[in-house]
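User: Predict the structure for this protein chain, please.
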Amino acid sequence: MSLPAWPRNSESLFVLMARAGRAIFEKLEVAVAAHGESVILFRPLAIVMRFGPQTQQDIAKLTAQHPAGVSRIVDELEARGLVRRVRGEHDRRTIRVEPTDAGRELFARIDPFVGEALDAVLDPLTPEDREGLIGALAKIVAAAGT
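Assistant: Here is the predicted structure, written as structure tokens:
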């Protein structure tokens, strides 16, 4: 089914961003599922691998997921031995999620395929288009404070 060209207005931007996000998610899900995993579980692991130990609240913000959902995902990752929760040294109320050796191994094994899947989705864009898109989205996120 061929879709009509989208007019260039704010509503179209919202719809196109949502559809682009869905296309990326679906491509990543296929890539991760090929290795017996779920992108829902892989994303929080990738966050703590790329940014270091994070609170569940930080992971929720960085993955745009509800904190309660992230808590359940971290429970599952922890049960599988892929992450652990660690209390802060200076503030014992702070609990950070950090990867275990098993989590690092899983990430190292799957992440190259995630990169290939992202490149496939973004293939229609030139390197300049990609940089422009990343810059524009980063500005929106920064202005929204999320």
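The chain has six helices and two strands.
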